[in-house]
Write a structure and sequence with these properties.
By secondary structure, the protein is mainly α. The protein is built from 8 helices and no strands. α2 packs antiparallel against α3, α3 packs antiparallel against α4 and α4 packs antiparallel against α5.
């Protein structure tokens, strides 16, 4: 069992160190140390979040801190609490240490799986979900997944599509100018037949025009009769009158 755990840790250290070197991160050799390997794993996750997701995270600080707290709980916390509370409170000490250990292990497992998901997503996005599920069920498979993805970085090249800014293009007068058609040519009258009404539709009846107001007759004014003037005698009649 110890040989299996040591071999798994060494295989994980090789994979993390190789991935960190390919991405040119600082201090990839820290993956060979038990607690410092958490810093390398958190650094890989932060690098992915910063370059692809445009977010700043601090998992490289949280993950090694949790691992150190777990190691402290397993090694020294029971002895320190036993010395502070006395030998008579040994059962209370064990209960406190067990509760603290469970909480720390739960937090460490959550942060570790989140960091592993970011590493899987940055290496091979297509199989990241499957790798994460198997890593949660069988933790001994984690070094093999990291070893399989140590030379790939397909997820680091993905970028979100930039926002398309609409370009204003003024319309030219030629585009808005409509060519004259046969219907719009002046001087030509087009005879269009009225479409026959469809069956089942009510035809519109012509509205009768309103009768105009009756005209009242205006009485005519009588004009005075003019007296007829005698006609002017002709030349013959004037000669006869002069002879007489």
């Amino acid at each position: 069992m110890k040989a299996l755990l040591i071999g798994s840790f060494l295989l994980q250290a090789v994979s993390l160190c190789s991935i960190a070197r390919r991405r040119r991160l600082s201090c990839p050799w820290l993956a060979w140390f038990p607690i410092a390997s958490g810093w390398v794993l958190g650094n890989l996750s932060d690098d992915y979040q910063k370059k692809v997701r445009k977010k700043i995270r601090h998992k490289r600080r949280v993950l090694p801190a949790l691992e150190g707290a777990i190691a402290f709980t397993l090694l020294a916390s029971e002895k320190i609490l036993d010395w502070l509370l006395g030998f008579w409170a040994r059962h209370i000490t064990v209960a406190i240490c067990a509760t603290q250990l469970l909480v720390l292990l739960l937090l460490w497992q959550i942060y570790r799986l989140r960091c592993l998901y970011d590493v899987y997503e940055s290496c091979s996005p297509d199989s990241s979900v499957a790798f994460l599920i198997w890593s949660a069920v069988i933790p001994l498979l984690i070094p093999f997944f990291l070893l399989a993805d140590r030379k790939s970085s397909f997820g680091m090249h993905r970028r979100e599509a930039p926002y398309a800014i609409p370009v204003y293009r003024p319309e030219t007068p030629q585009e808005n100018q409509e060519l004259p058609t046969e219907e719009s040519v002046p001087g030509q009258e087009t005879s269009e037949e009225e479409p026959a009404p469809e069956q089942g539709t009510a035809t519109e009846e012509p509205v009768p025009e309103r009768e105009s107001a009756t005209e009242v007759p205006v009485p005519e004014m009588e004009q005075p009769e003019r007296e007829e003037m005698p006609d002017k005698p002709s030349e013959e009649e004037s000669d006869v009158i002069s002879e007489s």
